[in-house]
Amino acid sequence: MTNVYFFKSNNIIRIFQELVKGPKLARDLAKVINTASKEIYPRIRRYIQKGWVQVQKVNNINVYSLSETAKKILQLQGSFEKIKEKAEKALGRKLDEDEVEVLRFFYELNGYVERSENETIAEQIYYALKMRINLSRITEILDEFTKARVLFAYRLKNGLILKVRLNKNLLL
């Protein structure tokens, strides 16, 4: 589980890597990320709310484990081909070479890109792909992927895109 989607923090990645092995106490998870056990719940609360992590009380102690949904996501997360197939189904056609490269870019970057102060998301992709795909073509692909819900874009009211991420349903 080296390329984990959705996780912006290495500590959260390590916690999930530990939970993949089986149910754990907060103190066990705390050791993995070198923190106090009381810090574990606040760090994973959002994943509990999403239903990815389950909490069971045993003698007034929280035992954390992965839900079936999280297990499915983590199993599929290493399969670019399955993600590509689901993207093609969402678009209703086969992806061309440029589209595959843009999709792979998001896959390899853990599915999440933020606009920087100096570059748009399209420009970041353009430079990351070593200018192999025309910038206007990248913009077009991003628009198509967003309309087909392969990607989700977080926009300001003026239309400026701040963040783009892979649709998590591609991983289920």
Please outline the helices and strands.
Blueprint: H1 10-20, E1 24-25, H2 26-33, H3 40-50, E2 53-58, E3 61-66, H4 68-76, H5 80-91, H6 97-108, E4 112-114, H7 121-128, H8 135-147, E5 151-155, E6 161-166
Antiparallel strand pairs: 1-3, 2-3, 4-6, 5-6
In short:
Helices cover about 50% and strands about 15% of the residues. The chain has about 170 residues and is of the alpha+beta class.
Can you give a write-up of this model?
The chain is of the alpha+beta class and 172 residues long. The protein has 2 domains: 10-73, Arc Repressor Mutant, subunit A (Orthogonal Bundle); 79-171, Arc Repressor Mutant, subunit A (Orthogonal Bundle), CATH 1.10.10.10. Helices cover 49% and strands 16% of the residues. The chain has helices spanning 10-20, 26-33, 40-50, 68-76, 80-91, 97-108, 121-128, 135-147; strands at residues 24-25, 53-58, 61-66, 112-114, 151-155, 161-166. The strands form 2 sheets. It has a 3-stranded antiparallel sheet with strand order 1-3-2. A hairpin with a 5-residue loop joins strand 5 (151-155) and strand 6 (161-166). Helix 1 packs across helix 2. The longest helix has 13 residues, at 135-147. The protein is elongated, with a radius of gyration of 18 Å. Mean pLDDT is 86; it is low at 1-5.
